[in-house]
Amino acid sequence: MSLTLPGAPLSGRPAGVFNGDVTAPPHLLYFEPTPKRIRVKFGGETIADSTGAHLLFETGLLPVYYLPVADVRMDLLRPTDHATHCPVKGRASYWTVSAGGRTAENAVWGYPDPIAPWLKGFVAFSWDAMDAWYEEDEQVFGHPHDPYSRIDVLRGSRRVRVSVGGTVLAESERPMVLFETGLPVRYYLPREDVRLDLLQPSETVTWCAYKGRARYWAYGGEDVAWTYEEPLHDAERVRDLVCFFNERVDLEIDGEPQRRPASRWS
Known about the structure:
It is built from no helices and 23 strands. The radius of gyration is 21 Å and the shape is elongated. About 7% of the residues have low confidence. By secondary structure, the chain is an all-beta fold. Helices cover 0% and strands 48% of the residues. It has an eight-stranded antiparallel beta sheet, with no helix packed on it.
């Protein structure tokens, strides 16, 4: 099920995927059932357990799980006066979750009278407000796994040179090249080829649903590089390697300067 604004609905294809003769609409919703069992935990309680979950794909946003109300512990939810309006989805009502002596304010929302009628009867949870999410019996981090996203990690031999303001931070002919749907190509380099003495350990920690927990290094007060010391299986080939933000450094590949890509890390 899908909805485009403006224009007629497109059916049977995920957000952002179009034939070459179709112009992408400025905003698209695509609502797709998932065969996975989805569980949400908070305060020691399983507050949702569903085999009827759907993924909502929306232009410019990460996918979001929407769960049937019948699969949610509504006895642990209290409606609030908070409301928001989305021009694509409609007016959202909110609930506060209370379990195990803990509370997450306005952490659940749904659309009682949605613009997209197929959202009716479903609710969504604030990912970060919950304690844990499971797809089947595997805990997932960061956001739901996107069935239209994938990672390829390939061994390379191109010469990669990283610098900032003329200072060389890394130079290697042994990159592992990571291709991830919708993101810039990333070059992961052996630590021996990186001037770690010029970088400062950062307190920043992030989670990727596909690669795992990343920790960072800074240069000149800005985070410029990261590593996965205990990667998830999709990123096992980049374990302990160092990757730099293409958006924040000067990158050369085989002597050719690369344009800094525009992304949310620019």
